Amino acid sequence: MFDVASIIEYGGLLLVFLAVFCQTGLFFCFFLPSGGLLFASGVFVANGTMDHSIVSVCVVLALAAVLGNASGYGIGRKAGLRFQNRKDSRLFRKAHLQKAEAFYQRYGSASLVASPFFPLVRTFVPIAAGMVGVPFRRFVALTAIGSIAWISVFVLAGFFVAKVPALKPYTLHLALGVVALVGISLLGRLLIKRIRVGRLRRKIQLGESTGG
Length: 212
Hints:
8 helices, globular, mainly alpha
């Protein structure tokens, strides 16, 4: 689905920056495997494919996440009512937003720190925070903490794993495998939800036809 080696080789840090920004800031980019790309970035810094220091990569990608969160917050703040009334489409599922709202309502401030670590939630929690009117400064402070932690954990994990002597010959395969695993797990979850929704709709239609 994504040729990670080409992304890193030809687009480098800029494309990974855009992937992180888009997944955290634009609701229709929830499917991007940014977690896998972060891990791959650490791997490619370690093997020299990405010609940047590990510190600069972490700082730049953390900035991407912070800016993406702020973008999502702004979208939720300005277009919250439209999201509530918007119909489901291939690029938008109201259930994703409702899940993020429930996540925020349940965990409060902790959800803003933890949300980057969870696919889908990291995309929709900033929108939900904007919709419910979380103070912007508080939102930025908490999501910045979570973003820095998320970026650091994933990038440094890839970096240090790639430094293990026994794994050095397999770093490219390792990076590709992680991205594939992240992408497949996300697509699998979406497919399961779609099947469940389809079954529920069929039951409702069957009940209506029987009642009629």
